[in-house]
Amino acid sequence: MRARILLVGCGRMGGAMLSGWLDRGVAASQVLVVEPAPARAESVRRERGVTVHASAEAIDPAFRPDVVAFAVKPQNMDEVAPLCRRHAGPGTVFLSIAAGKTIAYFERRLGAGAAIVRAMPNAPAAVGRGMTVACPSPAVTATQRTLCDNLLSAIGEVAWIEDEALLDPVTAVSGGGPAYVFLLVECLAEAGIAAGLPEDLAQRIARATVSGSGELLSQSSEPPEALREAVANPGGTTAEALKVLMADDGWQPLVTRAIAAATARSRELAG
């Protein structure tokens, strides 16, 4: 990837993206970072060797990025996006990972003809195992889509959609999904403690079980149903537990309600 990249925001997700790009062979000289937090900016500059500015206003007007990646919090986008309007043009694509900020939102601030890719990654991007779903605006060219795909694939799997409205349930399922999995670890540990396990052992068992199961699922070509059935022998202990978890008032209706609530909130936050 020989593209000139402007990364606006280098927090947890922005930092994961930057690490993925550099590890994939992007030269540090090709990347400019905007990061207002002094300590974080100095850390990125020292550890990654990239040029860091405190504000987009400090960037040389002659700099022409191929991609501007927005990795700031949604509540800060009103301040940040207009400062990057000067980069809008046929040679630049804007890649946003800000939840709830729509393509129309960016068109109002960057210009109606701006090429925009709205993407939703998730937390495992920090270890290169993220899941990102992306949606392009009509102005995005095939070359720009490929560029964004390459950048996003540096942090995990990438899927593309044409219907932007699907990003709301994507945010609910994929964006929030890691939190639900972490909650499962907490619940397993608490249940183990309630059943008599020492707390440290219950925590260790729950953590290793969930992370190991995720890796098994990743490496297996079988559907999750088949893997579940392989663990649950008829009449055994796991089957007994599954009677509770798969009951009419078990996990599925609860998770369905949770995803519906998150989807509705994502739509409320759209701007």
Concise structural overview:
With 271 residues, the protein is α/β, with parallel strands linked by helices. It contains eleven helices and eight strands.
Strand order of the largest sheet: 3-2-1-4-5-6-7-8
Mean pLDDT, as a whole number? 95
Gross geometry: elongated
Number of strands: 8
Low-confidence regions: none
Helices and strands in order:
Elements: E1 5-8, H1 12-23, E2 31-34, H2 38-48, E3 51-53, E4 67-70, H3 77-80, E5 93-96, H4 103-110, E6 115-120, E7 130-136, H5 142-153, E8 156-160, H6 167-175, H7 177-194, H8 199-219, H9 224-231, H10 237-245, H11 251-269
Helix pairs in contact: 6-11, 7-8
Can you tell me about this structure?
The protein has about 270 residues and is an alpha/beta fold. The protein folds into two domains: about 5-165, 3-Layer(aba) Sandwich (Rossmann fold), CATH 3.40.50.720; about 175-270, ProC C-terminal domain-like (ProC C-terminal domain-like fold, Orthogonal Bundle), CATH 1.10.3730.10. Helices cover about 50% and strands about 15% of the residues. α6 (about 165-175) packs across α11 and α7 packs across α8 (about 200-220). The mean pLDDT is about 95.
